[in-house]
Amino acid sequence: MKTKGITLVLIGAASFGFTPIFVKTGFSYGYTLGQLNITQMLVAFAMLWGISIVKGLKLKGMTKGDVLKVVATGTSVGLTGIFYYGAMLYIPASLAIILLFQFVWMGMIYEWIFSKAVPTKVNLLSLVVTLTGVVFASEIIGGDVAELPTIGLVLGLLSGASYAGFIFFSGQVATKSHPILRSALMVAGSLVLMLLVFVREITSVPLGDGRLWLIAFGVAMVGAVLPPWFFAAGAPLIPGRLANVLSSVELPVAIISAMVFLSESVSPLQWFGILLIILAIFMNELGESFIRRKKGYREKIVHE
């Protein structure tokens, strides 16, 4: 079961790394943030609920509270899309990805608030390594970041906060329900959020534009269907900290896809920073597990 969980989370994380390709392409064709988000969620909603109906999945066994919690968790997926895609309007996709990955330390705050888990020395050390990686990966040293629009940097950081929330809560709510049904409910929450946020752009969506719907299909698959689906199926099978570690695969996948398909350049210093961020994820998650095992072993010896 653990191997299955690891595989599913890896696929979900890696798929999200391809979103910049479709989003940047959509912006290059002149589509707005609202149009991309609305059509993406409509496609994802239709796909996941269509699969649920075909499979005969029902809400039986889920309480109203469970349903509301899953739908609410889905809004974090929608917020991530709004902030992450919005950041790419102003800054390079590679930098938006790096800012998104601040979920590494932001996840500590969620655990602190909701699980009462006070950050340990390992957590704080990984935070230092993460921020050091950001300095190199964002090329702050070269002064390039200062020339970028502040709104793009803020949106990128907000995407990290909402993504951290998605990772944390996706493994907490209605974990025994069918993963496809959970994903469908999450996307329903995201769709409602999109329609409320972009209510003024609903009438501007060109329903007959095949190119827009093709891009929306691509964004929906890698940004709204596969990630929550595979996370919903895999996260409950493995420890939450391991899920965070595995999700780090999204960073190199996204950076490489931006290089290959969007022709964005990444310097050696940036790669060094990216490696530091990934190292911080391993330090934070696996380091804590090692300390807990060591502490348990010592307590066992004392008890005996």
UniProtKB/TrEMBL annotation:
Keywords: Membrane, Transmembrane, Transmembrane helix. It is found in: Endomembrane system. The keyword Membrane applies. The keyword Lyase does not apply. It is a multi-pass membrane protein. It comes from the Bacteria. Residues 4-137, 151-283 form the EamA domain. The chain crosses the membrane at residues 33-54, 66-85, 91-110, 122-142, 148-168, 180-199, 211-230, 242-263, 269-291. InterPro entries: AA-Vitamin_Transporters, EamA_dom, EmrE-like. Belongs to the EamA transporter family. This is DMT family transporter. It comes from Thalassobacillus hwangdonensis.
